[in-house]
Automatic annotation (TrEMBL):
The keyword Protease does not apply. Residues 6-236 form the ABC transporter domain. PROSITE patterns: ABC_TRANSPORTER_1, ABC_TRANSPORTER_2. One of its GO terms (molecular function) is ATP binding. CDD domains: ABC_MJ0796_LolCDE_FtsE. PANTHER family: ABC TRANSPORTER ABCH.1, IMPORT ATP-BINDING PROTEIN. It comes from the Bacteria. One of its GO terms (cellular component) is plasma membrane. This is ATP-binding cassette domain-containing protein. Coiled coil: none annotated.
Length: 236
């Protein structure tokens, strides 16, 4: 794979030591190209969250290799000096709940990340507005999060995930709180955004409504993944 995208090879994660150790990931392989949205599906306790957290540098894997674009970021140990910058600039998490900051308006919720990365306030807000416009929620730019519908809040959360143009977005059940129509809208948006910004998106989901939309699915069971073609059903 050239350019962006993510490749995971032989990733292992063990929690704890000795008799009580849990081998949550037992050698996971995964590759997601720029512009691609893949599903990650598996029963409770199969290792989905652990995989997303390793991918997001929120926890340390035990072994394996992860390559982001052309950069090896983990090879039996982190190869990146500044993990905070990696999380902030390269990985755009989208969670199942929007987790917007209640005392910041919509624009500042999205602009905060570039501001933290040192981008001037005006430019950060312009970037935020560009994303809010792409997600068709620009008319709520000055509203507070509590004034938005659930679907609008999730679109703002997606804008925040995308604002630093990360090459990879792990999305943890991004449609869980939404009804069928809004869930499909969010998946459509993730696909559009993946193509537009060449982002590799990994969607953990239990949501039967959206599973048929994936062209590729990774099934995870007991810490091991296997890949399968999905239906790749078009959005009506
Ligand atoms: N901090 C931890 N310490 C010890 N064991 C853990 C820890 N976090 C997760 N585990 C264990 O690792 C395994 C994988 O957990 P993980 O949370 O990744 O599963 P999951 O597929 O995301 O589950 P769910 O769908 O229920 O959220 C489970 O056996 C879990 O009990």
């Amino acid at each position: 794979m050239s350019g962006k995208g993510i490749r995971i090879e032989g990733l292992r994660k063990r929690y704890g030591e000795g008799d009580t150790a849990v081998n949550a990931l037992k050698g996971v392989d995964m590759q997601v190209a720029p512009g691609e949205v893949v599903g990650l599906i598996g029963p409770s306790g199969s290792g989905k969250s652990t995989l997303l957290k390793c991918l997001g540098a929120a926890i340390d894997p035990t072994a394996g290799r992860m390559t982001l674009g052309d950069e090896v970021i983990y090879d039996d140990g982190w190869k990146v000096r500044d993990l905070r910058a990696l999380r902030r600039d390269k990985i755009g998490f989208v969670f199942r709940a929007p987790y917007l900051i209640p005392f910041l308006d919509v624009t500042d919720n999205v602009a905060l990340l570039p501001m933290l990365a040192g981008v001037a306030n005006g430019e950060s807000r312009a970037k935020a507005l560009e994303l809010l416009t792409a997600l068709d929620v620009q008319h709520r730019a000055r509203a507070m999060p509590s004034q938005l519908s659930g679907g609008e809040q999730q679109r703002v959360a997606i804008a925040r995930g995308l604002v630093n143009r990360p090459p990879v977005i792990p999305a943890d059940e991004p449609t869980a709180p939404l009804d069928s129509e809004r869930a499909m809208a969010v998946i459509r948006i993730l696909n559009d955004m993946a193509r537009k910004f060449e982002t590799a998106i990994i969607v953990v989901t239990h949501d039967e409504k959206i599973i048929p939309t994936f062209k590729r699915i990774y099934h995870i069971r007991d810490g091991v993944t296997h890949e399968e073609a999905g239906e790749g059903r078009e959005f009506e």
